Amino acid sequence: MSSSVLSTTAPFRAAARQKYFPLAIRAYSGVAASRLHPSHSKQVTPVAYAYVSKRSISSTQQNRTEEYFPSPETPGVKEVQAWAHPVYTVEQMRNVAVAHRDARNWSDKVALGTMRVFRWGMDFVTGYKHPRPEAKHPERFNLTPKQWMNRFIFLESVAGVPGMVGGMLRHLHSLRRMKRDNGWIETLLEEAFNERMHLLTFLKMAEPGWLMRLMVLGAQGVFFNGFFLSYLISPRICHRFVGYLEEEAVITYSRVIKDMENGQLPEWDNLEAPDIAVRYWKMPEGNRKMKDLILYIRADEAKHREVNHTLGNLDQKGDPNPYMTEYKDPTKDHPTEGIENLRATGWERDEIFFKPQEQK
């Protein structure tokens, strides 16, 4: 078969300090070799493993770091600031748990059924399957680090679509009605930004090949248009759908963490999180390994799970966004931007907008 179709090399970039990012590590028949970026004058010892691939799904043949992360060229500009992220504690992230909200009406059932079809397609493309509780997982579904990275990149490239579509449509609706949106736009756009930061972080660690790029292009085109039309018809079902989708994301990342704790992914034991992740999540010293990175990302997905289930419980036209609201009684528990008051299945409307007791 032509070498232009299938690649026999697979670079896996070092997720270490910034000066190591230009390195690409390749494996040829099990022998590792490193390619030095032209800007470096000396050979640098690689700090990550190399993987051999016979498919084009997961890696390119060139190191294209500068294409994904171009340096600012405007005179006087040092760095472009990212959207600020809430600070999570280690205890809060470890307390994140797998959870499921039962379908309570026909719209929930529509959202859940659609999500299951969507997840089946994702699993089929990435060769993944959720293990059943207390059951031995088939060997063919035990993913390697390279396969996990394929799944991460594919999922996160699609996960940033719902928040952007919802925020865009609500923005346009607000302009047409000439009325404010009561805070929904900000939260939805921030969710889309957060999912994109997940993708950019993984792109610092592995480069997608032409087949993966093609799948992302097709999936994004179909999903964007489908979600766009669905949000016009029923925003409530769309938020419930995303809530169920984020439940699956929490399961996926929880399984990765379990695999790492069980020693099934030794290549990631000492892998450092990229600088882009350290800055965005404000990762403290001593908590900047690959496992710590997955904990942060899982916590984000758990927050998206809560946010979308909560938004799905509200009046889509009249209620303000509870995550952008200042409450009259600060002593009561309310939704927050962080995960200190995390509700896995979302906040019910009467838990948020309750009537204060009359003073005697």
Automatic annotation (TrEMBL):
Give, as one word, the top-level EC class.
oxidoreductase
Q: In which broad location class does this protein mainly occur, judging by the first location in its UniProt entry?
A: mitochondrion
- A GO term for molecular function: alternative oxidase activity
Its required cofactor(s), as named, are: Fe cation
Annotated Gene Ontology cellular components are: mitochondrial inner membrane; respiratory chain complex
> Which segments cross the bilayer?
210-233
Family per record: Belongs to the alternative oxidase family.
From the Swiss-Prot or TrEMBL record, give the protein name.
Alternative oxidase
- Keywords for this entry? Electron transport, Iron, Membrane, Metal-binding, Mitochondrion, Mitochondrion inner membrane, Oxidoreductase, Respiratory chain, Transit peptide, Transmembrane, Transmembrane helix, Transport
Q: What does this protein do?
A: Catalyzes cyanide-resistant oxygen consumption. May increase respiration when the cytochrome respiratory pathway is restricted, or in response to low temperatures.
Tell me the residue numbers annotated for binding Fe cation 2. E195, E246, E301, H304
According to Swiss-Prot or TrEMBL, what is its membrane topology? Multi-pass membrane protein
Question: EC number(s) in its UniProt entry?
Answer: 1.-.-.-
Q: Where does Fe cation 1 bind?
A: E156, E195, H198, E301
State the compartments where it is located. Mitochondrion inner membrane
Output the GO biological process annotations, alphabetical, semicolon-separated: alternative respiration
User: Which InterPro entries does UniProt cross-reference here?
Assistant: AOX (IPR002680), AOX_sf (IPR038659)
Under Pfam families, the record lists: AOX
- In its UniProt entry, the species of origin is given as Penicillium chermesinum
The record's comment on cofactor binding reads: Binds 2 iron ions per subunit.
Q: Which domain of life is it from?
A: Eukaryota
Tell me the organism's taxonomic lineage: Eukaryota, Fungi, Dikarya, Ascomycota, Pezizomycotina
